Each structure stands twice: as structure tokens, then as C-alpha cells.
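This section describes the prediction task in plain terms. A model, or a person checking by hand, is given the sequence of a single protein chain and must write out its three-dimensional structure as a string of C-alpha cells. No templates, partner chains or ligands are provided. The sample shown here is typical of the held-out split.
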Amino acid sequence: SQQKPAIPSQALTITDSITPPAETETISSEPAPQETLLVLSVNGNKLNVCWENNETVKELLSYTQEKSIVVNTTKYGGFEQVGSLPQGFSRNDVQMTTEPGDIVLYSGDQLVLFFDSNSWSYTKLGHIEGLSQDALSELLGGSSAVIEIQSNYHNLYKSRPPAKPVACTSPIRA
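The expected answer:
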């Protein structure tokens, strides 16, 4: 019997389509940033993010087709950076305990990035991948931060829009 050629593993991120993996293929938990439609930066540092597949993330993607979202955040409670988004977005709040690296929407118009955990009702947007809690604390633990969300759409799709976002590989922790 012939073996199938190896296919490079990649993270499930917001892309135009995804082919279900064959049973023998492995999907890596490491994001493929070149395929991500939304790019998040903290103080100019681009981060790997696994975005959720929900209405709010779709709205962020739509908004960033026109312009980037820049949020000036401040440290709150010793565990998060929080700041006002330029408009309200759809909410589907659920009670959850966040983990370091979680990105959530609070009250429909506040962007929150966690460097420690907290229990509250949020809409999950995504999770920063590949950084330890210490690295997240160093990045987000200052008195303020500048968060930018921008679209990578035009670099990926020259003539056609994406069919739909696909979900993260990591489970939602609620």
C-alpha cells in the first residue's frame, strides 16, 4: 500500500475554507499567522491568536476591512488590560473563568486581554497562543498598553471574500 504524502500541519484560524484532515494527519496547536485574517498587536508586537468563530469576531473582521481598531488600555485589577472599542459589538456573554492570554468582549464595547485569570460574564473573542503567563504579564502588566486589531484580508484575498471563519482548535473554557 502507498503512503500519503505528508501535509504540513497548520492551526485552525480564520480562513476562507478548511478541508477536514485525513485521519492520519496532525493539526498543530501552533497558529499559522500568515493565514490569519485578524492580526492583534500589543505595543507593536504582533501576537499569534486563535480567534473564536462567533458573531462578534465576524463583526471585528468586517470593521477592520475599513480601518484598524486601536484601543488604549489600562491595567485593571492586577490581571487584565481593558479599554474602549470604537463602537459596540454583538454580545453573547457567558459566565467563565478566563485564563492568561484570553481575549474577551466586556459590556459590548470593552476589549479585555488577560495576563491572569478572572471569573465574570464575557463574550470570548480568542486566545493569545505561544506565550507563558510570565511573558503575558511582562507584555500586559504595565500601567497601560496599545492594542491594535487589523485585517490581513487584502494580503490573503485579492478577488474573493472568505466563505466563513472557522473555530479555534482549543476548547472554550467556560
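For orientation: The CA atoms of residues 105 and 123 lie 5 Å apart.
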